[in-house]
Amino acid sequence: MISILLATALAMAPDSTPAVAPPSSQEAPAAAPSVPTDHAALLASKDPKLARNKRLVYDMYRIVLVAGQVDRAHEFIAKDYIQHNPNAAQGLTGVMDYVRSSRPQRPVEAKLSLPMVDITAERDKVVIAFVRPEKDANGQTYYTTWFDMFRIENGKIAEHWDPMLKGEPKVDPNQKKL
Fold first, then answer.
1. I want to staple 156 with a disulfide (CB 3.0 to 4.6 A). Which of 60, 78, 97, 177 is the partner?
2. Is 131 inside any structural domain?
3. Mind listing the pLDDT tens digit for each residue in 66-88?
4. pLDDT tens sequence across 87-146
5. Does residue 74 lie within any of the structural domains?
6. Is 144 left (phi over 0), alpha (psi -120 to 50) or beta?
7. More confident residue, 1 or 151
8. Domain tally for the chain?
């Protein structure tokens, strides 16, 4: 008798498959993710060479890419720098031209002001990742991740990779703060 009642109840119940609503353009924007504030801890490493490599990339980002201090690029970047961003030219001169054309010079800050998620070093590579606020087609802010990977050779940045696509507009990272 119980099995007949259960079968009848199941047969009469509406389809229990949950419906998945399409994303709404009226949804509230996601909250900005939290980022570490202790950059010294992120730059630390038991291996002094890895710590130097992370510091080199961190300072280059802070001084050249954020502050736009192009005349100091040679302190960090090799003359024959290999560029994998399809919108920037090769070599130290290519980096300098890209930075000059995409941001003004600003004062150098003691600490990187971009929302850095992490900086990781292994062998001769350093990867630095940032939270990046963007706007969708409806003008709503959402958050993604930007990364740069650098190869270090003889104490200078010798090669660079990032996710930039061909034809995308040049980016001033200062416009991508939380």
1. 78
2. yes
3. 999 999 999 999 999 999 988 88
4. 889 999 999 999 999 889 999 999 998 899 999 999 999 999 999 888 899 999 888 888
5. yes
6. beta
7. 151
8. 1
Contacts 24+ apart (CB under 8 A), 100-105: 100/68, 100/70, 101/170, 102/170, 102/171, 102/172, 103/68, 103/172, 103/173, 103/174, 104/68, 105/67, 105/68, 105/69, 105/70
Top-confidence residue, 99 or 30:
99
The pLDDT value given to residue 102: 87
Q: Vertex 53, ends 94 and 58: CA angle to 5°? A: 65
Give the structural domain span for 147. 36-164
| Residue 25 forms part of a structural domain | no
Alpha carbon separation from 62 to 13, 24, 145, 174 (Å, rounded): 62, 38, 18, 10
Q: Answer whether 151's CB lies under 8 Å from 52's CB.
A: no
CATH of the domain at 67: 3.10.450.50
Q: Does residue 128 lie within any of the structural domains?
A: yes
**Interacting residues of 72 by C-beta distance below 8 A, sequence separation 6+:** 63, 64
